[in-house]
Structure formats: C-alpha cells, structure tokens
Write a structure and sequence with these properties.
Methyltransferase domain-containing protein, SAM-dependent_MTases_sf
C-alpha cells in the first residue's frame, strides 16, 4: 500500500487565532469520533500492560481536548484496577467536559483547570502519561521533545493514533465514517446554542473535514515513529512501536515507553 508523503498541514483548531467556540466544536467532533467508532477499545490492552509493568495506578492524559478516550478506558479497567484514577489536561483545558460523565466515573476523573503543555509537563505529575490521537500535531523536533521528556524522567508513556497515512486504508473509509462526528457531537457533547446553527450552515462540518484530512497527512508511519524514538533513547528506558496489522475496527498504533533495563527501540507488528 502506497504511503503518502508526510505534510504538516495546518489544522484550524491548532491556531491561536481560532475562536474558542470553533476550537470546542472541533475537539467535540474528535471526542465523538472516539466514541462511536470504538477505536478507544484497542488502546485498553496497551494501557493495562503499561500499568501492570510499572505499578502505576494513575494516568495523566495529555492533549485531552473534550475528554477523549481516557475516561472510557478507566471505566473499562475499573473491575481489575478499582484504584485507577485519571487526570485530564490540555493547553486549552475544558474542565466542563467531565460534567457529561456519570457520577461514578466523575469520582475517578479530574480535569486540571490550569493549562498543561505536553512538551513541558510539570515534574510533580506522576502516573502513566497518555496521548490519544494528538501526536500528529507535533512536528518531528517537538515529537522527539515529548518522547524525551518521558524517557528522561523515567515516566511511562503511551501514545495512540488510529489513522494511517495511506490513501485507501485511511483517507477514503474513515473520512466517510468519521465525517459523521459533527452530527454525533449533538448527543455526546454539552449542549450549545451554536452547534445546530453552525452544523447546518455548515461551518463545523467544513472545519472538521479539513482538520481530518490534515490529521491523516500529518500522521507518522511506524518506521518514522521508530526513528523519533531512537532520538529519545535514554539508559534503562525502552521504546516499543506497536502496530496492529489489520484494518477496520482493530486498527491502532501505539508508542509505548517504560523503564526497562533492556533499553532500546523495537517495532512490534501483531
């Protein structure tokens, strides 16, 4: 399958000039896509594996946007890890996002109100760091910095993407499916007076369509991820780039980093 050249196209909701209203609309679409595609379930075994390897029982989710999959994953693991908790964080935090969660889940999930830069995570934040569907936002030098901040401090890290930078395997099928996100967001996101209006116009679908295409063109291949991880090496820290072979509902790419005397970088296809 032919891989397209990586292009770091701009995404509207990345821009500082993007109105908060439209940034919220796009991140709500991202959250809706995670919800109805069910791709978040493919991350559960990797998160559980890293929690077991490291003994961590808390998660610091970076680039959380409107919440993302982290609360769902905590809920999925609650039976086996009843003490598990998660703190959501973002450079543009949306603490109100947790209001839509059930009371039981809100007891396990907290959204930090202060902005948190994924490239400069405060040292006092412990736990497994996770990044869901946001690693493509970072240019190579920034991506290495994000990885190096984890390996240098000995903190475990799990980075997840589900799209791939190939024409037939990513752009055509998911663009049709994920394109429903602006409609699904009416049920999965907090009610806003502007949402029906800007969906009908259609401002939100247009922004979402472009940002989805830009996301695919920005996505790193497994080989590129190995190269980034090689530059974030640290003694006693191991990187594994884990790539699901299949397409469809089982797809996921994970960069797993954790303290391990073996060290090194390995590509694992399964």
């Amino acid at each position: 399958m032919t891989t397209l050249p990586r292009l770091h196209l701009f995404e509207f909701h990345d821009q500082t000039w993007c109105p908060a209203l439209l940034r919220e609309a796009v991140t709500d679409c991202v959250n809706a896509a995670w919800t109805f595609t069910g791709f978040w379930r493919n991350a559960v075994p990797h998160v559980e594996d890293l929690l077991e390897r490291t003994g961590e029982r808390s998660i610091l989710d970076l680039c959380s946007g409107s919440g993302g999959p982290a609360p769902r994953i905590v809920h999925a693991l609650a039976g086996r890890m009843p003490e598990l908790r998660v703190e959501l964080s973002d450079l543009f935090p949306k603490p109100a996002s947790v209001d839509a969660l059930s009371p039981e889940l809100r007891a396990r999930v907290h959204y930090l109100e202060q902005p948190v830069d994924a490239l400069a995570v405060p040292a006092e934040f412990a736990g497994l760091r996770t990044v869901f569907g946001a690693f493509h936002h970072f240019r190579p030098a920034e991506a290495i910095e994000l990885l190096r901040s984890a390996s240098g401090s000995g903190r475990p890290l799990a980075v997840f993407e589900f799209q791939r930078r190939t024409l037939l395997r990513s752009i055509i099928p998911p663009m049709g499916l994920v394109g429903l996100s602006p409609l699904v967001a009416h049920w999965t996101a907090p009610r806003r007076w502007w949402r029906p209006l800007l969906t009908a116009v259609p401002v939100i679908p247009a922004l979402w369509a472009w940002d989805s295409f830009a996301t695919i063109m920005r996505t790193y291949t497994p080989a590129e991820l190995v190269g980034l991880a090689e530059q974030a090496r640290a003694p006693g820290y191991r990187w594994e780039v884990r790539e699901a072979r299949g397409d469809g509902p089982e797809r996921i790419t994970c960069i797993a980093g954790f303290p391990d005397p073996r060290g090194g970088v390995e590509l694992i296809e399964y």
